[in-house]
Design goal:
- This protein has 2 domains: 2-59; 90-198, Trna Endonuclease, Chain: A, domain 1.
- The protein contains 8 helices and 7 strands.
- It has helices at 13-19, 27-30, 34-59, 62-87, 90-103, 110-113, 153-165, 181-187; strands at residues 2-5, 8-10, 114-116, 127-130, 138-144, 170-175, 193-198.
- Strands 3-4-5-6-7 form a 5-stranded mixed beta sheet, with helices on both faces. A two-stranded antiparallel sheet has the order 1-2.
- Strand 6, helix 8 (181-187) and strand 7 form a beta-alpha-beta unit.
- Helix 7 packs parallel to helix 8 (181-187).
- 18% of the residues are buried.
Length: 200
């Protein structure tokens, strides 16, 4: 049969010939036609997929199914957020990093505890946040919104130098990319506490 539009099917010339052959039309008879074989194979594959999915569901408790669904939704959401960050401006990412640290419980309100430094005039520092409400300790932030560039040792060294300028002992370097092995090793060689965080 052919399907010229939705809800309409027309018997083909091959179908008319089959009807006029006076043969019993069953699966054994239809196997000689390639169209029937392709359709049967596709249906068999769909059946196997459905069975496998059903079997996995049968093997899981309702709680496990909920957890798996929750994790899947979380992964999709995380990918969407990551894409939105990459499409935004570097300034947006710097302010987002400050907001993230505040949301983690550092320093109280954004007005009192967090500030993003002036773009292009930050001296290697993208944000400053209070570690405690009294502001006895400050945490300096560096935010790099990269898509296909790895943060190397030289960038971490520059950040450490910027911390020296501010007489700071603690820093957080956050990126949407990743850190090279040299960058990670460098943080273990210095006295300052620099935390590297990959946001993806």
């Amino acid at each position: 049969m052919s399907y010229p539009k939705r809800g309409v099917c027309i018997i083909t010339e091959r179908g008319l010939q089959a009807l006029g052959s006076e043969s019993t039309i069953n699966n054994d008879y239809l196997k000689q036609f390639s169209e029937f074989k392709r359709r049967s194979n596709k249906e068999q594959q769909e059946k196997v997929i459905t069975q496998n999915t059903s079997n996995r569901s049968d093997e899981q408790t309702p709680l496990e199914q909920l957890e798996n669904t929750f994790n899947s939704i979380n992964n999709v959401l995380a990918n969407d957020i990551h894409s939105a960050i990459l499409s935004a401006s570097p300034e947006f990412f710097e302010n987002l990093v400050v907001d993230l640290m505040l949301a983690m419980g550092y320093g109280g309100s954004r007005k009192d505890a967090g500030q993003a430094t002036k773009y292009t005039q930050d001296g290697g520092i993208d944000g400053i946040i209070k570690e405690d409400k009294l502001g006895l300790e400050m945490i300096y932030l560096q935010a790099k919104r990269y898509t296909d560039k790895t943060v190397g040792r030289s960038e971490i060294q520059a950040f450490a130098g910027a911390l020296d300028m501010h007489r700071a002992k603690k820093g957080v370097f956050i990126t949407t990319s990743n850190f090279s092995k040299g960058a990670i090793e460098f943080t273990s060689l210095i006295e300052k506490r620099i935390v590297l965080y990959q946001l993806y």
